[in-house]
Amino acid sequence: MEFSTVTQIAFASAALLFFIFSLTLIFYSKRIQLHWSFYLAALIHAGWLASIPVTSLLAPSTPGSLFCIETLHYAAWIYALVRNTEHLCSSKLPKLYKYGLYAVAIAALLLALAVDGMGYTGKHIDQLVIWQGILFSIISLLGVEQLYRNVLNYRLVKLLCLNLAFIFIFDAYLFSQSLFLYSLSADLWQARAAVAMAASLFMTVGVVTLNQPAMQSAKLTLSRPIAFYTTSLTLAGALLTLLAIAGYYVELHGGSWGTVIYTLLLATGLISITVVFSSNTTRERLKVLINKHLFSHKYDYRAEWLRLINQLSQPTTPDEIHTRAINVVADLFKSRGGALWLRRGKVLVPVQQVNVVMDISEMIEPESTEFCLELEQEWVFSPHSPSMALAQHNELLPEWVEHLAEVWLILPLLNENSLVGFMALTEPQDKAMLNWEDLDLIKTVGRQVASYLERHEQSELLAESRQFDAFNKLAAYVMHDLKNLIAQQSLVVKNAEKHKDNPAFVEDAMNTINNSVVRMKNLLRKLQHNEPEEITVFPVKQVLIEAIRRCQKSKPTPTLRTLSDDWKAKADFDSLVMVFTHIIQNAQDATHEDGYIDIEGDIEGKILAISIEDNGSGMTLDFIQSRLFKPFETTKTGKGMGIGMYQAREYTQSLGGNIAVESSPGEGTTFIITVPVV
């Protein structure tokens, strides 16, 4: 194949790709907000590329026309660069600089028209093209440099400037070398088409992926991965060199690879542009790739990391740990507040809320839901995001999220790939759309906060374990005393015969002592943990009836409302009775004798919710969140050890249920106990 044919294919391919780039610019014109001269310059550039193969086919003897079109495309870019510098930077360039460039461009156009009209050909035209190419490529580079320097925070324009600079630098090289050879190099002239193809492809991808003029830092830099892979690129360059040598060998012995190479470049460019236009996922990935490896980062990660570590390492009380975790994350992302859920057995329960209006105490999430499973994959949910990429799993969000309109995002808290909990943040004042940097930082912060919470959880468990060790020692002393008491009571029973003259006294004493012996033996058995749990299936109604019977000596007497016999649980009967007995006794202690305690049941799916409501003294929210379910915390001085509610919730959660509390001081309390049914 002749050289001219390869040149025609090369420039025709470049013209097609540059025309697609021009149409892409026009399609996104409302978003990118460039001056109209930029679109015109791109179209003229495409027309200039197309004119080279067209002229060589239809009018090969008119080099003056090509000179005119060459001059026109440079003049168009000079005008476009000057106008866009003023348009995008809201500042006027020096008049001498601006009008001087205009004058040079107009003079060159007039000269080109005159040369074409006079019919100059041959070396005269070549020399004019070479000198004009050197002059205009340098002037164009000057215009690109001004636009690049003055547009601070527009990443697309920065990317366009880089590609235009690539084109003009190659032009300067082409014409400078040709100046020494006194003629244009055929090989470099073909390569000029390849440069235009590559630049148009990159600019098209840039327009599709970076078409929002967001005020993000557009400072160019190279990421560590890019620097690291320089070695790989060097190896790839060596392979391409070998390929070029092989191509030279083929051409030397007949034939040419030029047609194959340019056809391959054209096909690759068209396929790439089609994929970018048709695939949202590809556009998003390209956008992340460009922003991640070409521009400086939005966050100063070193500063953010040091600030996070400093805040989390400050001394704090156990009651403030959850609040601090929320505040640290909320401050980082300028959020007003949030809420925290942590794993408790087989469910994730809300443990704290900051500046969240709605009560979240009943918003419990089982660990087996698709929502939690997706959180385990480190997915960040954005319930109200307009971005399809961020909202693609929002159908998995639980129903309670709909009632929290203020939720901005939900981030997972993972520690060693295990879901510790999750945090919901309220919407910040700056409602900017999340990008890859935000998501990376959110996930990293989530892991650090999860580690922080896990460490404090382990510390609390260790402290509780030590308390239980002390409790076990205490229990040993109690059992010793109880044994002595039982022996004494048994002796009383044996010696009671001396009072047989008073039958009423004897009978009452015997019944009382015998009952105390039975109860103390039961207590000993429980304290010694010798009795394993017996798991059976039974109606929950029977449990409540037994719990009410055990509490019947105290007032007010609980009232059992409608409860179906069909609602059955699978558990240890006595342990579940203990749960309800503790709660009923607490309600009786907090309620006046003429008050009320109502017990009702309601079922939803496979979860039975039992509510125990009283009109007693009530509790504060702070007491409920920080003290109610903690072991060895009690308000009944001298009457209890403070482990009843702790045991009740621990056992309920081991079944897959939970205990929630609604209370206000002076208005009463409602306990909601949820248990799975079979």
UniProtKB/TrEMBL annotation:
Its EC number is 2.7.13.3. It catalyses: ATP + protein L-histidine = ADP + protein N-phospho-L-histidine. Gene3D superfamilies: 3.30.450.40, Histidine kinase-like ATPase, C-terminal domain. The chain crosses the membrane at residues 6-29, 36-58, 64-82, 102-122, 128-144, 156-175, 195-214, 226-250, 256-277. Residues 477-678 form the Histidine kinase domain. Keywords: Kinase, Membrane, Transferase, Transmembrane, Transmembrane helix. It comes from the Bacteria. InterPro entries: GAF-like_dom_sf, HATPase_C_sf, HATPase_dom, His_kinase_dom, Sig_transdc_His_kin-like_C, XrtA/PrsK. SMART domains: HATPase_c (SM00387). GO terms for molecular function: protein histidine kinase activity. Pfam families: HATPase_c. NCBIfam families: PEP_his_kin. This is histidine kinase. It comes from Teredinibacter turnerae (strain ATCC 39867 / T7901).
